[in-house]
Amino acid sequence: MTDPQHVILAQELIARIKAGEFRVGDKLPTELELCESRSLARGTVRQALKHLEDAGLISRRRGAGTTVAAPAPADGYEAFVSTRAEMLAFVQRTRIRDPITNIVAADDHLARRIGVPPDSEWYCVSGVRELLGSPIEPFCWSELYLRADLPYRRMLLTGRFDMANLVRQRISQEVVADTVSAAVSSALGVEKGSAALVVVHRYFSSGDAMDAVAIHTHPAGRYRVATSVGSSGDRL
Question: Which residue of 24, 63, 136, 159 has the fewest CB atoms within a 10 Å radius of its CB?
Fold first, then answer.
């Protein structure tokens, strides 16, 4: 499937900035120049520039044009969430590209990793995760483990599964330091054994049983955690 025109244009501009053709402080071509040189509608060009602006690559001011603000996209995606609304935004704004699905029986290693009984069965969905409609490279490797005794697999196969249903449940979250495995390094194009941060979300039903576990492995440079603290100690 061919990418939308605004994604193709954004990818081209990102590549030219990374290659040094446009340096920090340089002006990009105007919207009109980009429209005319590529026979694109103005709305398409604006969508492409919005991708670059969201990635921290450019700054735009009325009357001052579009200026390169950074030589590469801002580091990663902020997957550490503190509210249910932020969690919902995370699952709605991102997706697993070309997901791999299978049923697994938790061996000792997996059981310890996701915090479940050994030999329990889970439906696993995994793959690289990306922002919807964004030309920015995938920001993590995601693994979603769903209890095999619940109807999640049938819901997935029939297109009726919605992560928002899990988000409505109680959620625990932890962040741990780890290294990138061989499978993840190949999928994300990073060095095996390099540093990574792993975000683990566990979803609990009303009976306090764990229904699902999501593990997001972020290579160094594609992750950040940011919080603000007010003078009273309340998080802003």
Answer: 63
